[in-house]
Amino acid sequence: MQAVQWDAKADVLSLVDVPVPTTGHGQIVIKVAYAGVCGTDLHIIQKEFPAAEKVILGHEFSGVITEIGPGVKGFTTGDRVCVDPNRGCGNCRECFKAQTNHCQNGGLRTTVGIFQNGGFANFCVVPSEQVHQLPAEVTLPQGALCEPLSCILRGWENLDNPSLDSRILILGAGIIGVLWSTIFHHKGYRNVSVSEPAEGRRNRISALDLGYQAVHPDELTSSISEENIRDTGYDVIVDCSGFPPAIEQAFSWLRAGATFVQFGCCPPKDKISISPFEIFSKELKIVGCLINPFTMVNTVEGLVRGMSGSYLSDFSRLGIKMFRLQEYQEAIAQLRKGTISKAMFEF
């Protein structure tokens, strides 16, 4: 079969021929149907994030079961499924506290598509406990969005249900900013703005017809001041940019009692400067969210199922473009240019 493989030692991402995987005990082989390219994949090939020295990338994917290993129950060949690429070891302090995303043995240290071979291939073998059947209403392309949406659901849970009259700002209109926008609208929030420097991405937010305002960050800088922060500031800011200067700037746009959600993934060594006095005096809350502990079931059975016929029905409006696996270089190039919000491989 063909696969897109990252070789850290050679510093090369390439299309390779590898054997079709087979099942071991407790494993399932999936014929991959759709696989999304994540910003994390770009960080990996830029050597900004850790990964296995040689690995088939792709941690956002869906497909059909073709082989079931011994010891697996509850699945049959032909089932349409998606994959949770993360799992804990089940035996450490963090796992016992339901913090599998901080597991010292599993979690981010064993992620499918980062530390184990993933979905940028015709077939992928996965532990059965990481496989989720798709409801009839959810298409296979939508199934490939379940993993990023499960991470957003983790962020939503950590945000802890802000009041519906909150003034909300999303930083960045890439695919994550787009998906956060649809989820806020799905949950009833109407006073939402999206800050984005690229005109094409601002137009994409407008084209969603959510009634949200897409603004250049310079507009916010010129309109928000200490004198008018009560009227022009925000109760919730969600960073989806992972761009430290934008994050640093946005802290001055928070109202008293506001919450800042750091969702965007910054390079590990980057720093920002914020005022401890401002955190103290405004009683600000800063919330992080790391991957998707225990959110995949609610994402597949609830969130995506509920949004499948509306917000997720037209991928072109979301800025998602399909590519063949052999077009991986062009897919990454368009993603980096920002001409699309997400590249997805269609098999």
Give a short overview.
The chain is an alpha/beta fold and 347 residues long.
Descriptive notes:
The structure is a single chain. With 347 residues, the chain is α/β, with parallel strands linked by helices. It has helices at residues 39-45, 93-96, 140-143, 146-159, 175-186, 199-207, 217-223, 229-232, 244-250, 276-282, 296-307, 315-318, 328-337; strands at 2-7, 12-17, 27-36, 54-56, 60-68, 80-83, 123-127, 131-133, 168-171, 192-195, 213-215, 234-239, 254-262, 285-288, 320-323, 342-346. Strands 3, 5, 6, 7, 8, 15 and 16 form a 7-stranded mixed beta sheet that branches. It has a 6-stranded parallel beta sheet with strand order 11-10-9-12-13-14, sandwiched between helices. α10 links the parallel β13 (254-262) and β14 (285-288). α4 crosses α11. The longest helix is centred in the middle third of the chain and has 14 residues, at 146-159. The chain is globular and about 65 Å long. The model has no long low-confidence stretch (mean pLDDT 97).
